[in-house]
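Students often ask what a holo structure prediction actually looks like on paper. The answer is less mysterious than it sounds. You provide the chain, you provide the ligand, and the output is a string of discrete structure tokens encoding the 3D arrangement of the protein together with copper (II) ion.
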Amino acid sequence: MKNPLHPLVAACLLAGVLPAFAQAPATAADTHADHHTAAPGEAASELSEGEITRLDAKALKLTLRHGELKNLNMPPMTMVFRVQDAALLAAFNVGDRVRFRAEQIQGGYYVTRIEKAP
Ligand SMILES: [Cu+2]
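The corresponding structure tokens follow.
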């Protein structure tokens, strides 16, 4: 009588896992919606969605839980980015939802542009 347990185990796993991932796809969906309304000329400088989870302006670092980064071919995740100028982060706090542009520069991931999400 092991088989009847399996659906229950699967249900528990799904119930535990789905909420943890629910936010990332929602963010990606918002990004997609924006793409459809954006002018073609804006594609090269399009911004990605994220939320600041850690911030250390003095160290020129911030951690972002980000949606898909199409220009870097990166799926949604939480990771550390660097900035080249602490002033870029002056107006931001942990917990802020942002739109940002990330670039790979000499092997490091840098936020080159960031603004608060509307
Ligand atoms: Cu990433």
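The domain at 5-116 is CATH 2.40.50.320 (OB fold (Dihydrolipoamide Acetyltransferase, E2P)).
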